[in-house]
Design goal:
The chain contains seven helices and nine strands. By secondary structure, the chain is α+β, with helices and mostly antiparallel strands. It has a single domain, classed as Leucyl/phenylalanyl-tRNA-protein transferase, C-terminal domain (Aminopeptidase), CATH 3.40.630. The chain has a seven-stranded mixed sheet, with helices on both faces. Strands 1-2 form a two-stranded antiparallel ribbon. Strand 5 and strand 6 form a beta hairpin. Helix 3 packs antiparallel against helix 4.
């Protein structure tokens, strides 16, 4: 689908029906909407956390917060490394997701090192759905730490579905899988109306 707009109501209706925006890169003003088949998810009981990453999480090197600086996480996801002017996170998308955050649907997990933003992830929460949009790191392992904390938090809060849209080699190593769109839409319909709220991500988790 081509067209539409990035209002809060439009985005909410789209995510509730398994559709997400992704501008056509050649023309950032051409707004496209997608519902891929198959669909990538991270099973909430299936995140792969290596022994080394467990040690990093336990080490205290990083500090974890949530919704402290949503805009900075979105900006970093759009500009880190070679992503500047080379990503689907256009200015219009940044503005739309920041408005979505102010409306209570957008959420971020920030990872800090020595008081500086080191990594993070942001996404959309509707009922028991969390749709991960993007993640980044300035420091090695920081985005993985954000993901570990996020998945632990989603489990604690009673979320049912963690959508990541498309599978990558990196997400597959962390436990992501692909499922048919029909199965995804069934899980989505069961998740979006659950009485679940995002709350605040704790700064520490049990990694025994």
């Amino acid at each position: 689908m081509i067209g539409g707009h990035l209002s809060v109501d439009w985005l909410t209706d789209a995510y509730r029906h398994g559709i997400f925006p992704w501008p056509v890169f050649e023309d950032e003003n051409l707004l496209a909407w997608w519902s891929p088949d198959p669909r990538a998810i991270i099973p909430l009981d299936g995140l792969h956390v290596s022994r080394r990453l467990r040690r990093v999480v336990r080490s205290g090197k990083f500090q974890v917060t949530s919704n402290r600086d949503f805009a900075a996480v979105v900006e970093a996801c759009a500009t880190v490394d070679d992503r500047r002017d080379n990503t689907w996170i256009t200015r219009a998308m940044k503005d739309a997701f920041c408005e979505y955050y102010r409306a209570g649907f957008g959420h971020s997990v920030e990872v800090w090192c020595d008081g500086q933003l080191a990594g993070g992830v942001y996404g959309v929460a509707i009922g028991g759905l969390f749709a991960g949009e993007s993640m980044f790191h300035y420091e090695t392992d920081a985005s993985k730490v954000a993901l570990v904390h996020l998945v632990a938090h989603l489990n604690r809060r009673g979320y049912r579905l963690f959508d990541i849209q498309q599978l990558t080699a990196h997400s597959a190593r962390m436990g992501a899988i692909e499922i048919p769109r029909t199965r995804y839409l069934q899980q989505l319909s069961e998740a979006v109306d659950l009485p679940v709220s995002f709350g605040e991500v704790p700064g520490t988790i049990d990694m025994r």
